[in-house]
Amino acid sequence: xxxxxxxxxxxxRSRQARPACGGGTAPASVVPVSTRASQFSARVERRDELSPxxxxxxxxxEGFVSTGIPDEWVGLVVPGxxxxxxxxxxxxxxxxxxxxxVVHEVGLVTEWVVRDGCVGSTVTITEPKGSYALxxxxxxxxxVGDLTGLPAMARIVEESSLPTxxxxxxxxxxxxxxxxxxxxxxxxxxxxxxxASLDWPPGEGYFWMAGESAQMRAIRKHLMRERxxxxxxxxxMGYWRASTGRQPRxxxxxxxxxxxxxxxxxxxxxWSRYDEARS
Length: 279
Fold this sequence. Notes:
Blueprint: E1 39-51, E2 54-61, E3 73-77, E4 85-93, E5 96-102, H1 110-113, E6 122-126, E7 141-146, H2 150-159, E8 164-169, E9 183-186, H3 191-196, E10 206-212, H4 213-226, E11 234-240, H5 253-262, H6 267-278
Parallel strand pairs: 7-8, 7-10, 8-9, 10-11
Antiparallel strand pairs: 1-2, 1-6, 2-5, 3-4, 3-6, 4-5
Helix pairs in contact: 4-6, 5-6
């Protein structure tokens, strides 16, 4: 996820002013921002440009606990900002958190991450959440996404033993990004057309997809109406929205889903509420 890998947990406001990127002296150690377990401070230890549109941030943090869900994301608040943007946890080991950030034309994090001076900054991250939920009895999985979904797809492939196929729409050469041996098709066309033309394997499986919100709405309708898939058989997330100068609001789909189910709404009605909440 790279938000505008938008799309996920509830917007949080930082109550403390933060130094500009690269400003001030980094603390000797990193400690939780507050006694609340939902937010932590982290120090940017390294910045690596993986491609013209993808930057890897390596953070050090204390107290962070991974959910173990391969598409888990965290909210990131960068210095000088109070709004969270949400990014897939590419990996987490021994206090080292790796986030791969998509560089958009505009955006709160884009303007900060393109500067070399972001290394050494202290940022705020929120507790992780994830939505990947492989149904019992699944025999295969299909993963489809654009550049914002690529980090999650890479981690899913790494951590799953199921036969997996990947379709990825990316603007750069990232042929070495996915784990070796990944069965991947690099595509140019709209992802909605890619999904419509898929040859689905026989038996029970799982479909996971992330990308631009408008395309995701159309794909959800296709899966529900034309493919007739039950809700547990797919997860389609809008990670960002194509717009001019305005980022979508970050909204956690969990409460909307639970409330909709409690009210007896259909999957399509629940997702429509989710899309409205982000507009």
